[in-house]
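Field reference: sequence -> structure
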Amino acid sequence: MDKINLWQCILAPMAGITGFPFRKTALKYGADFCFTEMISAVGFLHNDKGTLELLKTGNDIAKTGIQLFGSDPDILAQAAKKAADKGFKVIDINMGCPVKKVVKTGAGSAILKDLKRFSLIVESVRSALKDSALTIKIRSGFDENSVNFMEIGKIAEKSGVDAIFFHPRTRSLMFGGAADHALIKKLKEGINIPVYASGDIFSVSDALRIKDYTRADGVMFARGAIGRPWIFTEYICARLLDKNKVCAEPVIDSIERNIDYKIDIMLELTGETCLFYGKERGYNIIKPHLYNFLKGFKGSKNLRIMVNNAKTENEIKDILNIFKTSRYEYTGTN
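Structure field:
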């Protein structure tokens, strides 16, 4: 991709998760690039208050892409141009969201059902952009009877799309079953633009295995990064060791068990979240991160219940400090 280098490890756009505080923290702890939450093209053009909050980047706009969703080629093109004018260098169009309320509007993965509309969208958005890169996030198809990612990829390449983020599940699978990473390998071999691997990357070991198997240009962490913003540093370290023919597993294991370090980062993320959203909203927004972080520790079920019942930022911080001093054993299981 000649317009911008997205490097190796990227934070995926996730609704309700990848707001500014989490993106800021992920970039601080090793993410090469990140995306905003999925943003309505219509809401963006109308300067919707909630939409504008999602656009916050601080000093990190050079490492932040905007992900737009919609179904109308002209509206998406206008929104993409507006985003580029605001300084975003990577504009991503969501063509993979499986959620019913998005699909029923003709957006997200519904676009995969209509190759003509797909072509119109990417051509319109590409024409609206000058210096910014255009990327798309796709699934393998809408359902098992319409697995058309190769056609999508070839049209995208021909239409000037700069890179594809590929989650190899159909829309009908939602997040069930297993991501078929062989499809990423096939797409990578079949087109000449960068392809980034997504789907079921929950650990550094997953990322190394999938990257090496698919030969993708990089990996996109989604659910595996929730409550684990340091996973990017872990991946970078492991990747460097792997390239130098040094066994990465002991180092990964050592990093994964550095609990004090991680609790300090979670305390930092909690503070950033409550500062940005306000304490009342912030302590609810941080909860999914805390639930995910606490998984895998023996006896942490009670702490997750405490997190669920917490009403203030200070209560959240108290729980993390209890966890820090209690030396919970990491087992790797729920």
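Note: The chain has a mean pLDDT of 89.
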